[in-house]
Amino acid sequence: MKKVYIIPWYKTKKDDVWYQLISDFFESKWINAVIVDIKWEKQIMSQYVEQFIKQITDFKDEIYILGFSFWAFIAFLSNRILNPRMQFLCSLSPFFKNDLKHLKKPWLRFYWKRRMDDFKTFSFDELVKNIDSKTFILAWDNEYFSLIKRSKIANKKIKNSELHILEWVDHNLNDIRYLQTLEKLIKTL
Hints:
CATH topology: Rossmann fold
CATH class: Alpha Beta
Structural class: alpha/beta
């Protein structure tokens, strides 16, 4: 069975309209959509990944993953465990060990020490070596420099990837242009 796991972003609800739209895009291609239920409060990235993996109903399924921003990070980290057929990394957050020294100080102050220590365990260069999945990387042209840079590096290092830089789109998955681009990509499956 084909299944896409859609990882909702922070403080959104599983029944928000844009998740239903994205689910419908996949279901029109006969891919069952599962909107993941993550408990966000006071957790670290490793715990988010564990929560996500526990919701996989059958590891024999043909798995697709879609994550946005910080939650694209979860999709990326889970790749080594799930080896999905395809992943959609939308505005992939630059919080890998390799990125931390380049981030703006206010970004770093936002996260407490336990979360920062967890970020330091994730080396992009090591993790990317094991990714064979078809990967769509989406970002908007006015993202923070470090996010655009991470997206471009990911595109170069992931063997089977496509980078889509969207113009005049906000850092917001429910932006109509973001949704239209996702719909076009999903229609090609």
